[in-house]
Design brief:
The chain is mainly α. The protein has a single domain (about 30-215), classed as hpI Integrase, Chain A (Orthogonal Bundle), CATH 1.10.443. The protein is about 50% helix and about 5% strand. It has 10 helices and 3 strands; from the N terminus they run ααααβββαααααα. A 3-stranded antiparallel sheet has the order 1-2-3. The radius of gyration is 19 Å and the shape is globular.
């Protein structure tokens, strides 16, 4: 058995078979969530883009980032047909490795449904031919948005942090929060909980993981 094969065997014993391993806990501090004033300003910046496609794409970043916590790849892959409305409730059917159904936060549900209806089965973010596998596909787009230099910078990471921190502040049950964020371990939420007063501390999140595993 080669050295690499031995390492794979050891990893499987410790972490489980490849493809079924939990996402390791990321120790880096998550970016701060946007404040209510910053969210309003970002929505205004997005709506002010002159080009209709750029405007709808920027709005999609705000709506499905802050309102549904999508990761960059999930936002890039999202189609209008993946957004479903039931009365006042709107949900996003996320595809990919962390496939899940995410209820859109109430304040963004109406705009999410409008954007989806306009897109039909098309892409919600930067529709049309493009190299969607490019690493900086989203970042390069936000860098070219027309905005006041003093306006907050629009990033997927801060949008997602705003979504997660909002649920932590609202006391969403951990099992539900993990399901809608696509996060495997409760301890991974600790990097977001640092921004939320009264959120579960890291030790509590770690203990929750142990109970779930039956340790």
């Amino acid at each position: 058995m080669g050295h690499r094969s031995a390492l794979y065997r050891l990893a499987e014993v410790t972490h489980g078979p490849a493809g079924r391993r939990a996402t390791p806990f990321a120790g880096a501090r998550a970016p701060a969530p946007y404040s209510p004033a910053e969210r309003a300003e970002l929505a205004a910046v997005a709506a002010a883009q002159r080009d209709p496609v750029r405007r709808s794409s920027a709005l999609a970043m705000v709506v499905f980032g802050i309102g549904a916590g999508l990761r960059p790849g999930e936002l890039v892959a999202l189609r209008g047909s993946g957004v479903v409305r039931h009365g006042r409730r709107v949900a996003v059917h996320v595809s990919g490795p962390a496939a899940r159904v995410v209820p859109v936060t109430a304040g963004y549900a109406g705009r999410a449904a409008e954007l989806a209806a306009a897109a039909g089965d098309g892409r919600l973010f930067r529709p049309g031919p493009a190299d969607r596998g490019y690493k900086n596909f989203v970042t390069n787009f936000t860098a070219t948005l027309t905005a006041d230099p003093a306006a907050p910078r629009l990033t997927v990471s801060r949008c997602r942090s705003s979504f997660i921190c909002g649920h932590l502040a609202a006391g969403t049950p951990l099992r539900e929060l993990l399901a809608i964020t696509g996060i495997c371990q409760a301890e991974s939420l600790a990097r977001y909980a640092r921004h939320v007063d009264g959120a579960p501390p890291k030790a509590v999140l770690r203990a929750w993981d142990k109970r779930r595993r039956g340790c």
